[in-house]
Protein 1
Amino acid sequence: MARQRPDSADGAGSNQLWFLPPAGQETQRRALTRERVVTEALAAIAEHGVDALSMRALATRLDVVPGALYRHVRNKEQLHDLVLDGLLAEVDTRLERNAAWTGQITELAHRLRAVLEAHPGIAGLLKTRDPLGPHSLALAEAFLAPLHEAGLPPREAGLAYSLVYGFILGFALDGPSSVNEQRVRDTGTRSELHAFLRALPPERFPTLVAVGEHVWVDNRDERFTTGLATILHGLDTARPSADEGAAPADRR
């Protein structure tokens, strides 16, 4: 009986299995897309902060050469804009339109603050960029609609939006992990600070001695709520009444 040659069809087929990648391995490397770049950038910020985000670091994280990123984003500035828009998508802009306009703004402000404080460094990035992506625009629309519907003239509505938005960003910049917040949250450090204030020369710092310990306290949520309420109360007081008609809308 003739011996079967090792290089027969069956043998060759079997041997080839050793040189073929496991099923699916050829598609294991995920295709690089703009969505994947942004998602990975957001994950990097969550882990290491916004200051650690760079094109080179992101490329390393994605296991690609830096040049591959530029097929999906023009530069670092566009990456920042895309990241900001992706993050602002986390803000729920759905509001109860039958609620008072101040209540709508308050609800939206708390939602934005929560998202910003969940991503340290993003508030600072927003101060340097003016993103105009779909989610950024949706957020601006959500803030402006109650102000406009409350009867604020266009110019005043724009000023009110900038005031409220700036307050939220400024508050988030001094986040829970900042030095000042950590100082007042620590019971021992806060007690030492209050004792220091009470021991100041009363003839030179009478007001600090009297009320200083009520300034440096662990009341971050109360400060935000009170500050926002004060702004909205001022806007509500200043807005034209219904019997004034639409005349104020022509003011410049």
Protein 2
Amino acid sequence: MRAPIMPMLIAGLALWAGQAFAQPSQPRYSADGLYNLANAYARAGKPGLAVLSYERAALLAPDDPDINANLAYVRAAAHVSMKPPNRFTRLAQATSPSFAAWLGVLGLALAGIGLVAARVAARFLWIPRGASLLGVVLIAVTASNAMLLWPRMHEAVVLVDQTPGRVSPAPMADAAFVLREAESVTMTAEHEDFIFIRTDGGLSGWVARANLGAVMPPVGNER
């Protein structure tokens, strides 16, 4: 019997996201540690690094009111707009990636048990059907969380004020626009020391890699 590929990939993605912040050698990659680090950056007048740390903390504790409030405050102080999440986004982000992954594993188990039990226990079909329905709901929660997590893996925060977005990946290329510190962008491609980004306003161009901080840090890398 073949294992269902898509649910396992979804669960694996969410587990990987949790592991990216759970390295034993990096104890500050916890919601509390990142929150305190962000507060220190905010007090030091470094809104880019503060927003980056708040965003990372929000991945681990998406419903923490202090993290979300401080994130909004620092963005507002830096004159950077922040799109309010819709109802579906708030619902799907109510669980952390690692917890959502375990919900998906539990959902797969319940759905499988329900299918097997339905063939064995003919008199009490409501029990296996209920287990299967609950399993499907848990898998749906995991899938929603993973779908929202996937684009965040390509999000970055501008760390240097007046960062130019250039027309080509070269230090002397013409600047098409300028980015504010603490602004969020989407990374779509890379070339040597430059990353091709897209802003929420639809602007796109090449930005120096050193001027950006990825919201989802690579495992074993702090930046």
Protein 3
Amino acid sequence: MSDLKALMLREPRLTLAVAESLTGGRLQAMIVAIPGASEFFQGGVTAYSLDQKVRHLGVDRAGAAAVNSVSKGVAEQMARGACVLFKADVGVATTGYAEPSAEWKVKAPFAWWALARRGPRGGFAFSSGRVDCPGLPRVEVQERVARAAFDALAAWLRAPAG
């Protein structure tokens, strides 16, 4: 995990913010467990309801309501919103289902993670992925998704720019 600190502090130094829903703070806990995380971590928010995703992260209400706030697009909006809210260079977000949902016809837990990186001209570059968790209990789903987002962030930072 300390690899993340080295990646964030190499030139150009980057700052990080987090927006979580499904993972309920687990991703932030992983980040702040790194000694010296205060050198790059700006903060995070757990926005569990649609109202809070809209209010704090700028998520599009109509689009998110149509998918119960679970989609690649919503995760990307949340990651971008974390960057804006905390004035960070990089944002990471999670949203999904920790359990099956008959109402939304979800047979097995799954989630989306997304990364947003502020560009030199103010736009954002995104990366995202889906984590499927069939048969896993709620807490294991949350832990698996937090780990997937954390690992994706480190891999994205390791990749050559461009």
Protein 4
Amino acid sequence: MSAENIFSGLKVVDLASFIAGPGAATILSDFGADVVKVEPPGSGDPHRHTFKIPPQPRAKDNYAWHLANRNKRGLAVDLKSPEAWEILERLVKWADVLVINFPHPVRKRLKLTYEDVAQWNSRLIYADVTGYGDNGPDADLPGFDITAYWARSGLLALTRDAGAPPTLPVAGSGDHAAAVGLYSAIVTGLYRRERTGKGSYVATSLIAEGVWACGMSVQAALCDAEFFPLHDRKNPPNAAFNVYRSSDGNWFLIVVQSKDWPALATGIGRPDLLVDARFADDTKRAANSTPLTEILDEVFASRPLAYWREALDRARITYGVVRAPGEVITDPQLLANDIIVPFEGGGEHMKFTVSSPLQVRDVAKVPARRAPEIGEHNDEVLKQLGFTGHQIDDLRASGAIPHAQHLEAAKTGERP
């Protein structure tokens, strides 16, 4: 860990699984926090296996696990074991932040509620991420980002074309947004602690993050607004906010404000559109969006993308080229802005990773290194918590922590 980073010395216990909670802890680790990832012995966090499940992209290297858990130390503990209770208590007393996403009934059964653990550490920031929040009829339901963030929030209903059914959203997209939200809640709690000396119970949920992402539309519904039909590319409500295709098959989205309409018409070589009565102002262009879309379709289909990039840049028209992930990683903007950064130890093919989206000017993030194996740092962490070698042996004998051969078996996928 860097001795000079923003969160150097901050101690974080990551009890969460999958992406949203661990992702928040990863952002803290990017700025120097010491994060201990706690997993059950055996198969560990279920997210270790996500990359094997269709329709996730297939790879030999566990890219999903490393992305969500880089820069952490690994501790394998059976929290159901009575002997694990002392480990948990010492972890909480050691920690500044505890990240958790267990369903409410599970954390009650394991005595991991805020009321249970705050008695050990009044300065603790207890960071909770759930599917549907702490209250209401669905508070105890499990939730993934594709169900709670996407489907339940209104996002999935709106991100499709007219006549098309809802589709499967991009895996992890809601989780990564929620991770940033939970990180923000943690930092807010830490700031409060600096001012008052008191810890906090901070929280977000996938549904809250999804509704916030869909906030303009949800707020419109709260105002009893009249919604346009689902987007129809050939018959849009606004031809200047639409997707078009170049002659070489590339799709790109244009966003043209009213003030930029003359620049667009001139830039694409169609100044005659400026004197066409059908397109004289915003109202008329909206009323005649279908014929305008047909004209723009024909114009943009006449030249390759390189031509249109130059023309649109010259006219200072805002646009975005639609790129697949395999094309995104070649974008020079990602390297220039440290969005893609070097990665150490991720596997034969994983030499780079996606950095967290926050930057602090003049502060370099911790170099990204691989996520831990299950229980990789058990002895190291337990000794740091004050357990003696004899006590660690007793914990192994009790089953609270796994034997070395069990850890090796979990690593290789074989039976001990």
